[in-house]
Structure formats: structure tokens, C-alpha cells
Amino acid sequence: MARKSIIAGNWKMNLLPSEGETLVAELKERIRIKENLEVVICPQMALVPLALDWIYDSSIQLGAQNCATERAGAFTGETSPELLKVLGCRYCLVGHSERRSLFGEVDTTVGLKAQALLSMGITPVVCFGETLDQREAGTHLTTIDTQVNAVFKLVEQTGWTRLVFAYEPVWAIGTGKTATPAQANEIHRFVRGRIKELAGDIVANATSILYGGSANATNAADLLGEPEIDGLLVGGASLKAADFAQIIASF
Ligand code: PEP
After folding, report:
1. What pTM did the predictor assign?
2. Rounded distance, CA 157 to CA 153, Å?
């Protein structure tokens, strides 16, 4: 099964409706999406229903940044995967490092969210990655292994080939410090090897693993040139049409 290539923009908690609309309009003018590539925008939740209109008539896909572990019920302030489905989201990030560090999200929550999304036919983009302390202490592979393992424990086997992962070293997010293409490729290869052990060859070969962490118009081509990097998750640079368009053109 060929792996899907994905370039996704994580807008985080940025952009007002008029700004989001302008950004998408500019993107639509600038980009030509190649075959085998999915381009996804992930706006903050309140913009999602508007963004569905903005992307109309284009092949840009819609994603969310977070969701609940449950389908519906008494969970004030949460967003159900069921609603995301109705609003046209094909993708949803889970376990972004900002969710983990600022909102106390743990591996179990991440796995449950991934399963809830899959049950609605939405592709979870499961973010994982080590902090600077963990890398310097040499414990990064153990951290990554634990994060990836939890997902396979909590996601039903039927959903395994529909998972997407994103390696996002915490020290590279929003810092301007990118992992080198070789460093990122090495982690992706490690993770694919672990997936092979946990879930078998077919799943490992089908699983797209994106890189995220200060990816930009200048470094995108080199990152995408690595054999184990199946796409990019882009934060800051996805907020500028010219930059995001250039990243997409690097594919
Ligand atoms: C992110 O938040 O997912 C991200 C990769 O951010 P940035 O590209 O700004 O480092």
C-alpha cells in the first residue's frame, strides 16, 4: 500500500475569520497540488465551519487541532469527533506537544482520541516527540517508543493502517531550530521499525510519518527529500500564503 504524502498547516490559536479567508483565497491562487499529495489546513475550532466554505472548489482538505475522547455527552467545552465529521474534517491532530505540556494530555488520552476519530472515519495525526532535556539525556527513543506504543494499545487493529504520525521534537516547535533532515529521518526510521514490531510490515509500510518543527520554505525540500519523511506538519510558516505555497511546491 503506497503511503500518503501530506502537508498540513497547524494554524494553532491564530487568525480571525477575515484573515483565515484571505489566507485560503491566496493559497488557492498560488498552489497546484500534485497527485499523491494531500494539503490540509487545521484552523482553530470556531473557524472550522467557515473554513469548509473557504476551501470549496479546491483540493485543500480540512483538519481540526483537537477533539474529545467521547462521541457526545456531558463534556463541557470539548468537541466531539462526530461533530468534526459533520463539519467536514478529514483529519484531526492529536497529542500535539502544546496539548501535552499545557493541557496535561497523556499518552492514554491521545490513544483514546485517535480511536474515537477513527470510529468516525477521521484520520488522526498523532504527534509525538521528545523534549530537549530528554534528547540531551539520551532518553528520547524511550520517550518516543512509549508515545507510539500507547497508540497501538488503544486503537483497534482495524484502524492501524489509517493512522498518521507526526514526529515533532518539542525543541524544534516554534523555535526556529529544525531537526536536520538526517536527524528526522533517523527517528522516522526508528518509529517505522517499532511499528513493524508492534503491528507488522503491512501497517508499518502504510503508515505516513510527517515531520514538524520549524519547517519552512527554505528547509522543506531537504526534509521532504528524506526517504522516511512522508510529509510535513507546519505551524508558523502555514500562516503566510507565500511560505506555505512554497513548502507545497517543494513536494
Ligand atoms: C507545530 O506546532 O505543529 C509546528 C510544527 O510549529 P512550527 O512549524 O511553528 O515549529
Report:
1. 0.97
2. 9
